[in-house]
Design brief:
Blueprint: H1 15-21, H2 30-57, E1 65-70, H3 85-94, E2 100-107, H4 117-123, E3 129-137, H5 145-153, E4 164-170, E5 176-182, E6 190-197, H6 204-210, E7 219-223, H7 227-235, E8 242-246, H8 250-253, E9 266-271, H9 274-280, E10 288-292, H10 303-307, E11 319-323, H11 337-340, E12 344-349, H12 356-363, H13 367-372, E13 374-378, E14 381-386, H14 395-398, H15 402-415
Parallel strand pairs: 1-2, 2-3, 3-4, 6-7, 7-8, 8-9, 9-10, 10-11, 11-12
Antiparallel strand pairs: 4-5, 5-6, 12-14, 13-14
Protein name: F-box domain-containing protein
InterPro entries: F-box_dom
Pfam families: F-box-like (PF12937)
Length: 416
């Protein structure tokens, strides 16, 4: 059903392929098969294809996913070109009243060659949008004309069923905006997850849409140069439950007593300084903490600095995951009282040579410690430490990759 591929009538397939696809329709007698197989197969095949066609045409959800590409050279791979406006109108007609999943790929300046019929068709279906994903390939600092025009024309306040809105700009100048929405009864949809990364700000239409909604956010995923937006957003998100902050300059934007996050349970710090880390350890309900040590003071950061202050969260913290830590910095780490008291403590490291000193420290530990401690290799990564059975579903034990972590944050945010 792809509009980008040429199709061949199924009854033109070779007989041996037809026998594999439709063996039930072949005659059982070999002599009859030799005489009649061609007409028998083709007769049944036409009936089957007609039946499938009827099912597809009259099944609205078969027409509810609209993906196409408004591209200039070079073409974006694996993306359908836009169907003719009449075909798109037929999609919308056959989808009836089902929720629509719309994704549009574009480059920065395609509107001049794009009929406005597409915009009119999309605008007329805004009340049925469940997902709207706009992805742009850019080479300069400007937005896609088509996407900007679409957002200007579409009254998103009418999109009461919208649950996912994403705005992605590829390559190094990329902007990434992603939000999960919860519809309200008497107003526009309300987001509960927000993801930000890239050197550019929001499209003005999206930024204004978020005004007044921050109180409802329960999940925030923020990276790169959105540091200037991080603290204002944190100040406006008192209900935040899960936070990933991968911001190298966060310490320059965060001052003492600015993190009033009484509901924060899941915190992942991809980058910050020691002062910022200590401030986050003051959060009263912090349950899981994931830290990338190389990004906190680099190779000179001493894990003992963290250990000596973990007591701040000793009443609530149940899971600690550290990444990017060398074996030479692990000596004594797992036997520190602050770590021993944790139900789950894990170090994820790609260090291929565990130091002899570290291994000796494990061997010299008491039997209770050795019974808990495990050292395993998963792919290219070493996993050291222990996991309590009550925390096996930990957010940060599932996967450390940012793209997967964000999806996991969504699940946890939705739960709360």
């Amino acid at each position: 059903m792809s509009v980008s591929t040429n199709s061949t009538s199924a009854d033109c397939l070779p007989d041996d392929i037809l026998r594999e696809i439709f063996p039930v329709h072949l005659l059982s007698d070999p002599d009859d098969l030799a005489l009649h197989k061609l007409s028998t197969i083709r007769t049944h095949l036409r009936l089957v294809c007609r039946r499938w066609n009827s099912i597809v045409v009259h099944t609205p959800r078969c027409w509810s996913t609209i993906h196409f590409c408004l591209y200039g050279p070079p073409r974006i791979p694996r993306c359908d070109p836009p169907p003719p406006p009449k075909t798109l109108a037929l999609f919308f007609k056959r989808s009836q009243n089902t929720p629509l999943f719309i994704k549009i790929y574009s480059q920065e300046s395609v509107l001049a060659d794009t009929p406005y019929d597409y915009l009119d068709l999309l605008v007329n279906t805004v009340d049925r949008w469940e997902t709207l994903a706009l992805e742009v390939r850019i080479t300069e600092y400007h937005e896609s004309d088509f996407h900007s025009e679409l957002l200007e024309r579409c009254p998103l306040e009418r999109a009461t069923g919208l649950r996912r809105l994403s705005w992605t700009q590829k390559r190094f100048l990329g902007r990434y905006f992603n939000s999960i929405f919860t519809p309200t009864h008497n107003g526009p949809p309300v987001p509960h997850h927000l993801a930000l990364s890239g050197p550019l700000g929001f499209p003005s239409r999206l930024e204004s849409l978020l005004d007044g909604f921050y109180d409802n956010l329960t999940s925030l995923f923020i990276t790169y140069t959105f540091a200037k937006d991080a603290i204002p957003i944190l100040r406006m998100t008192p209900r935040i439950v899960s936070l990933h902050a991968g911001i190298s300059a966060l310490n320059s934007h965060l001052n003492i007593n600015t993190t009033n996050l009484p509901f924060l349970r899941y915190l992942s710090l991809g980058s910050c300084n020691e002062h910022t880390l200590l401030e986050f350890l003051e959060v009263p309900l912090l349950t899981e903490l994931r830290i990338c040590l190389d990004a906190i003071g680099g190779e000179y950061f001493d894990p003992k600095y963290l250990l000596d202050h973990l007591a701040r969260s000793r009443y609530s913290l149940r899971v600690l995951v550290l990444t990017r830590i060398g074996a030479d910095r692990l000596v004594g780490f797992f036997q520190h009282p602050s770590i021993v008291a944790l139900p789950t403590a894990k170090v994820l490291s790609k260090s291929s040579a565990l130091s002899r000193e570290f291994l000796e420290s494990v061997e010299e530990a008491d039997s209770d410690f050795k019974a808990r401690f495990r050292a395993t290799k998963v792919g290219e990564r070493f996993e050291l430490g222990w996991v309590d059975e009550t925390t096996v579903d930990s957010l940060f034990l599932k996967n450390g990759r940012h793209d997967i972590m964000e999806e996991t944050l969504l699940q946890y945010a939705g739960y709360y």
